[in-house]
Amino acid sequence: MNHRAFTLIEVMVVTVLMVITTVMIIPTMDSPERSYLQAGLGLVISDLDYAQATAISNPDQLTLVRFDPTASHWWVAPESAPDTPYVKEYTGEPFDTYMGEGRASMAQRVTFVVTGMVNNQIEYDAFGRLNQQTIASIVLTCDTEQAMITIDPETGFLCATTP
Is the pLDDT of residue 28 over 70? Predict the structure, then answer.
């Protein structure tokens, strides 16, 4: 007798492997909106960190981060030329970002609102602190997903809350 069938052990091993694979894959299946929001959040945080480091390394001048929420756009500039972004040393391009374009192409449909800022800008001083007394915040939105960055004025410390 020549039977062609799987043993119970073989079926159980395959089932366990399928369960393990499923458990590993499901957490990575995030919504595209959440992925776009995470990309935008990372870019804003990165640029705020850059601005703070620039202010500390150039103590004779404040470094600004100016936001244009109507265009989902921001740039990092010196106080002496607030409308002229710094130039990236490694590419020679201006240090400004539009959500959904260029290096922010993964942040499609992300918009933001800023609060606690004068003229939609923050200024970092020589110690990396904000040149203001109130907490500044940036709320990023992509469809139904939201994230928020708050900046402590006394330390310049960033705190991000994500969905």
Answer: no
Per-residue pLDDT of 35-92, as tens digits, reads 899 999 999 999 999 999 999 999 999 999 999 999 999 999 999 999 999 999 889 9
pLDDT at 3 over 80: no
Are the CB atoms for 162 and 41 separated by under 8 Å?
yes
Assigned domain for 2 exists: no
147 burial via Cβ count (<10 Å: 0-12, 13-18, 19+): buried
Full residue range of the structural domain in which residue 44 is found? 32-161
Mean pLDDT of 113-141: 97
Total domains present in the chain: 1
Burial class (CB in 10 A: 0-12, 13-18, 19+), 79: middle
Q: Which residue has the tokens 């119970």?
A: 8
Distance CA(109)–CA(114), nearest Å, equals 17
Q: Are 47 and 76 in contact (CB under 8 A)?
A: yes
Q: What is the CATH number of the domain that holds 104?
A: 3.55.40.10
- Show the tokens assigned to 99: 């959500």
